[in-house]
Design goal:
The protein is low in regular secondary structure. It has one domain. Helices cover about 10% and strands about 10% of the residues. It has 1 helix and 2 strands; from the N terminus they run αββ. A two-stranded antiparallel sheet has the order 1-2. The chain is elongated. About 10% of the residues are buried.
């Protein structure tokens, strides 16, 4: 995932049950996306919740080459 910046727990977290340390969840501190919401490239600004959910639910929505793209369902 190009350009995404991983959230890191505060120093010394490593607590059992932490979704980041123990569970391995990736969350971008720049675009606010996590896991299935992540685009190919980071848009370098916060992405609204509705758009992150669209990326998650419809894999034809992506941010690549500096622009948003939407592919028809038959191309996904």
């Amino acid at each position: 995932m190009s350009g995404h910046t991983a959230y890191e727990c505060p120093t010394g977290c490593n607590q059992w049950g932490c979704i980041y340390c123990d569970g391995g969840l990736f969350s971008c501190t720049v675009c606010d996306a996590a896991e299935g919401e992540l685009t190919t490239e980071c848009p370098r600004k916060p992405v609204p919740n509705w758009l992150r959910k669209l990326v998650y639910n419809y894999k034809g929505v992506d941010f690549i080459d500096g622009a948003w793209s939407i592919k028809p369902p038959e191309e996904c």
